[in-house]
Records
---
Amino acid sequence: MRPLRFLGALALTVIAHVATASVSPQLLNAVDLFVVLTVLNGMNGGSLAGMLGGTTAGLCQDTLSGSVFGLHGFTATILGYAASRISQRLVLRRVSGALLLISSAVLVQAVALLALSALTLPELILPDPFWLLVRAGVSGVLGALIYFLVTRWRQGADARRKRRTRRLRMG
Amino acid sequence: MTERRTRGIFALLLVAQLVLITAQASSSAPEPTAVERGLFRIIAPVAGMVHRISALPGRTLQGFRRQRSLLEENRRLREQVLDLRLEMVRLQGMEGEVKRLAEALDYASPEGLGADRRPLQVADVVYADHRPSLRVLILRVREGSEVHPNQPVVAAQGLVGRVIFVSGSFAKVQLITDRAAAVAAMIERTRRQGVLRGSQPRELKLELVPLQANVRPDDRVLTSGLDGVYPRGILVGTVVSVRPSEDLFHLISVRPAVELSLLDQVYLLPTEPIPESLLEEPFGATP
């Protein structure tokens, strides 16, 4: 069930990414939807789910990009694994934790991509620091919002299930 | 699953991807992997569908706005068609004269744009990525089109890029501004040759032009046809600045002729791919 849920989320991410590019390709500078998905998936599951989700999301991002295939897959695998480990160790349950984790993940990915690009491309072009910070901020806020909504929905679903069970017992 | 096994799988995944990355980086013409082809086959139709849906409201609104100006546009286009027809007749006359002169001089005309009479194939741009490090297009080609890797892609204003690979009715295109892209080029005025490489999103660098070469701003840069990918004579861009460097070559910045962020439709040039046997045979090899 969890893999299916992740694949559904990945499909939505791809659609949102392409739709954003249709509106304005430059908008993709402001948000990284695949990192948001990778980190949220890592926070929600175990280390294995985190890293496999990261690999899948990263390879999908590579398919839509012109860079060497595997660059985003490599970095997203690390991000997914790290997100799951950090959220297990620190028991991250708050929205602010999700915001911080996602924003940091965007920055870490930029550094990792830069390092890998130095090995694979003839010329190194540094990312624009302003847009990097904007991307980290916007992705963090978006991921925190999604985390908040999903957590609320889950709490509501749990409460409804408990009410139903109580009624069945009393009835 | 134990923590140790999870760490093992993590290390294995990283090593596998690192091997994939370094294999592509070390190859001069990396082929797309089976994984990339498979994912592209799934994702490209999604991109096409999203593009169609997202373009619908814009087109509807545009239709309402343009209703008023349609008559004026129709009149203007009729005048343009008449002018172009007259121009075509004039150019056909010139072409005939060039052919006659070529025959008289016993000169074989070079392969270039227009030498092939097959019609250009139109393709719609369904996805464009212009982030600083990633410059790629995904095209939806019309049914019945023959598209192959390394096929040049052009717009009305000039060169756009080349097809990297094809899956079904979708094709992935590397733009000329991509950092890994290279185009054999020449200055139109002096015929001095060089290599154009992608640099910034709206800038190309013309390399290997020696310091004694005569280059100045506003010089037009065309494809030279020497890379075996792009036919000769396609406009690529215009020289923006020329500076001397510390080594033997100029530092030349070129602005692309095509506004790559505004592309909606492009054309695929009908060229024959170079046979594999010619590409593999090293120069001077004995039979």
---
Amino acid sequence: MKNIDSNSHLRGESIYLDDVPLVAGTLFAAAFGSPHAHGKILNLDLSEAEKMPGVARIFTYKDVPGENQIGGIVPDEPLLAEHHVHFQGMPVALVVAESVEEAKMAMKKIKIDIEPLPIITDPRVAREKGELIVPPRTFKIGDVDAAWSQCAHIVEGTADTNGQEHLYIETQGAYTFPLENGSIRIISSTQGPTAVQRHAAICLGIPMHMLEVDVTRLGGGFGGKEDQASMWAILCALATYHLKRPVKYSLDRMEDMRMTGKRNPYSSDFKIGLDKDLNIIAYESTYHQNAGAAADLSPAVLERTLFHSTNSYFVPNVKATAYSCRTNLPPNTAFRGFGGPQGMFVIEAAIHKAAETIGVPAWEIQSRNLIKTGDEFPFGQIAESEAKECWVVANQIFEPEKIEKEIKAFNAENVLFKKGMSFMPICFGISFTKTPMNQARALVHVYTDGSVGVSTGAVEMGQGVNTKMLQVATQIFSIHPNRVKIHTTNTFRIANTSPSAASATADLNGKAVEIACNAILDRLKTITAEKFSVSETEVSIDNEEVLIKGSPVGYNWSQLIQDGYLKRIALSEHGHYAPPGLHYDAKIEKGHPFAYHVFGTAITEVTVDCLRGTYLVNSVKIVHDFGTSMNTAIDRGQIEGGLVQGIGWMTLEEIVYDENGRLRSNALSTYKVPDIYSVPKEIDIKFLKTEKDNMAILKSKAVGEPPLMYGIGTYFALRNAIKAYRPDAEMEYATPMTPERVLMGLVGKKQEKVTV
Amino acid sequence: MSILGASNNLILIRFILNKKEIQTALPPGTLLLDFIRYHQHQMGTKIGCREGDCGACSVLVGDFKNKNLHYQSATSCLTALGNVHGKHVISIEGLNMAELNLAQQAMKDESATQCGFCTPGFVVSLSGFCLTEQEPTEENVLAAISGNICRCTGYKSIEKAAGTVCKSLENRGNESPIDFAIRKNYLPQYLTEIPARLLALKQNLNGALQPKTAKPKFLGGGTDLYVQQHETMHHEDIDFLFDQSDLKGIVQKGDICEIGAASTVTDMLESPVFQAYFPNLKQIGKLVSSEPIRNIATIAGNIINASPIGDLSIFFLALDAKIHLKNGNEKRMVPLRSLYLGYKNLDRLPEEIVEKISFKLPDEQSKINFEKVCKRTHLDIASVNSALFVELEENKILNAGLSAGGVGPVPLFLPKSSAFLSGKTVSIELLEELLELIQTEISPISDVRGTETYKRTLLHQLVKAHFSVMFKELDVKQLMNLSL
């Protein structure tokens, strides 16, 4: 089935935040962000700004009626700065005016005196100074200290990954409306409607039931609108609360880039030990996560780094420690992969460095150490693995030995160009690692005309979750897709939602839809059984036709629903789902946090222009563990999109802050995401259909985040190509692999730190 | 969004938006994007970046060219209303039919839409491709969507959809693109009525837009001014140069080529003169921005903007182009090589505009090569760019012009290095000496486009690239081994 929004998207008729028809009396907001990355506010002078034309009011922390706090995991982030500022762009005041232009003109008249305080941008420096967001955490298995003595090869090093700007094409924003008796309706471009509702309630000091958060769809999220959307929604709600007027704020691109957090950069140390047969015996890693100025989701991101510290490999002795370091950058946050990619990059770097040191191709180490069913992850969960299957099938289909041979021949013949290849196996755990978040609800109404309305906690942001929800309802009722409408995500219809994140949205909400639909179906079967004097098990529906013992009886869905209404059965159901068997004990760092894992293998081939330092990705060939895909078109799109986003992170997307904490890559002209020319010439995806029982919706495994990590393969393929030109190139394991980094490797120079 | 105040200017801006005739008294500097979204309430045209870098706001602009209506894509976020005066503008709403149009159906079939926010822009660009005279080749159709950024799909599905669109145009023969597209029901019928309606509208334009004051702001395509000064441009008193007929046209006069200042990059790439004299023009052109920007960015704008990494400045510096300035009837000529005095400081009075750019066309013994490296090869600003022009006699260089961008406060002509090459015979040794000399003529700084060391290294490499491209006889290994 095609994405159910295809037609309206293609006709430009889908409605995003900024497309909502304006209500008369709407005011427009603009946030005044701190011009300094760290300091004490000595004076904030709004007098001139307040006199500017069109200004309705300017709000500061003093106007927050409830608690001035939006921190989700740790209460360390004010809605509006009080006495200190902790990053450039930290909201200090909110200007509300009759027009966007007037709000922005007034904002320029705000005067602020800040006494500067020392600025930290480097997570290692933050750790030295004791600036930690939460206490460090360590995952352990075996006895790593004792294991080194068994190793024939021990390799140590550092590995750094830069951040990544989400660059959803639709920027952040919200539009709030006063309802009667102090209630507020919030339209928000958020992945977490409940997060918006909960924190708006805290800030406004009113109960959650007075806040209706409604989300139609997002023009991209990628994690960037999980917690980071709350700020803008609550600021608008604050203005509506006081002014009793609709208030809208759709951030412009530079505001969005400057004021919102990104993927956490990491600076990590590794030590890996292998025996003479290339089995990884021991692995020790230390991660310094650059959390930015507040916790946001960083502690959870940190946890997932640890959960994925060994990627797709079984290592018997592991010690992995992670520090969440407070710096003076915007609070960094969720981004597709959620810390997993950062952790996986480090062990891949360790393996590649070990391979170079030992003098074997990295894939020999990779293939030898893939995790098997029954192996234990460092956090205690026993693997149900498809790692080997993916690897083997990839080898069968794509014949990497042949590719390798061709590359060797090409490199022998060519001086100006060199090719490189790499393998990238992935293993990604599906579930929120905070176990209580693994729950979802769905509200299904069957109307008397036979049409069906479905509401869930899932937010549609391009991942096709609404299409999958519709498929579930359609399949269970066995009715035509046109009968089913997926409604907006709304906190008055579905309460206490978990954000659309962790790749788990379709699983959790889909199961809730399944439960709700089945409950209604059971009641419908009961009245049908009574009507035809048969048992319920002899009743079924096939393509809108009611069947008795498998045969049509001239009775269809429409008639059945009419009868259901007349017989006064409930044609609505609220389904609740919580996946069983999940548990985790953070005190001992052991448990069974994931419903299942997703596996895959990517083989990447690149060509480097050794004169110019530019490159292209020739091909990425993937075998991916889909389970039994319920929508191959959507799932393929997720793999292609995730892969390219991962390649972007590893290659051309470069976030640059200067030493004052000012973002220099602050626009699309200075921060480059992949365009149509820079993506792999060929992406070949083979669906590994795996039949093992898993907890995925209709056995169709989660597909949102895992493919991003295939992009890591491009980094190592590029390294290999550079090495083919200059075998003695001394390159740090640091990303992104920009043309600058490539050229420095090719000419045998050390890459200088990018500071401006 | 604001309801912008009406201007006092008596001349109303008139154009056709999709089917609808527009007449507005808004300031002519108002952006087309804001007009479509917030004044016409047509919300399919999206805002992604407001600097021409994402294509979510793409529209098609049609105007007569040799009596035929000719459509080009443009980013409405950088297009002033004054620049569509008397033209036809098509937004996504103007491409919708009862059923999906060709591009829409192709994208649906390939599942080429995910979050949908960039989608209308792609549909506009692909539909625009159906309306152009360009050959339906894969290369051309990809160029048509080269200015559109998608963050969800990874582009492969879009690429396939573009392929389908392309294939559907293969049997067009000599039929006009518009007639063909409508006959095949690829695009809506009303487009056939536009030429007549637009002609009628043009008769009643009530003259060209005139600035109100003696010191107006000059505006070409707007691709730079609306990025640099987006908050103030809307209200400026503007002298619109883009459509002034005396600033248009690329002609050959003897061995001199004259380029009207308001010619766009696309005009240059499509010009028969350029195509005849620069065989590698297409490759060079593809490195300059994206198609919708090339369609509206003027050559004079690129030069006068004085960006230290302006692609065309670098190209024309190597060719020793002359800039012809005028202030009313007063005219003077400044060699491009002496136009740039310092960072954004030009030998040009505020009242002066560029009338034309001229240069001597290369003869058969001449070669020019342009190199550019940026983080992303396309639709990006160079870390370093460079051009080398040489007049040759056998393998002896008679005259040379070497320029480089991103390595100083202005687009640099390298006089010493250029002079050094004159009279020399091409050899690895010559290149080696040249490479040392260029380093003495540049002063790059570290910024978001690269560290100083990188820029020095990169120019070193790009000059080697010039030699490697131009002088195939040189030993590549030796060339590669020349290190900084």
